[in-house]
Amino acid sequence: MAKKKASTDTVLLELRAFGLAYPGAHTKSPWPGHLDLAVKDKTFAYLSLEGEPFHITCKLPQSSSIALMLPGCKPAAYGLGKSGWVAGDFSDGKLPPTDVLKAWIDESYRAQAPKTLVKQLTTAAAPAPAKATAREKTKASSKTKTNAKTNAKTTAKPKAKPKTNAKAKPKTNAKKRRA
Known about the structure:
Layout: H1 2-20, E1 25-28, E2 36-39, E3 42-47, E4 55-59, H2 64-67, E5 73-75, E6 85-89, H3 98-112, H4 115-125, H5 134-154
Antiparallel strand pairs: 1-2, 2-3, 3-4, 4-6, 5-6
Helix pairs in contact: 1-3
């Protein structure tokens, strides 16, 4: 039994360290028995403490239906399940793979964090653009000028609509019948 707790504690510490690596992430302890992960004081992962049965709750707007198929998972209490929060109770020590739990934390962080912090994640992962040569800069600026002229022409005011005769009878396709 001690081996299961030790292994879940190791996973718990790994998940907490993983979550704290995100921009603006910090720990938050709203009530006893929890040391949660938060960003801008908004919790993105509820985690149990070391030595306690393993519990995790995350906001999974995209993958909640898949997560709910796992044994021990159910919609989070207090109405949070309606918003995509999933609670995982793995007190038996049978955890899903750590990569799955990390993916939950990642998805939950992205759902809860301000867009400016999420943008830091995507820009940090993107490769740095190559420096443009002077000739490429000149070509790019001339294209921009050409596009600006084209856009000015296409965004001009639309022509006025033609006036219609209000007294004119509407045309119909019905044929007159002879009696």
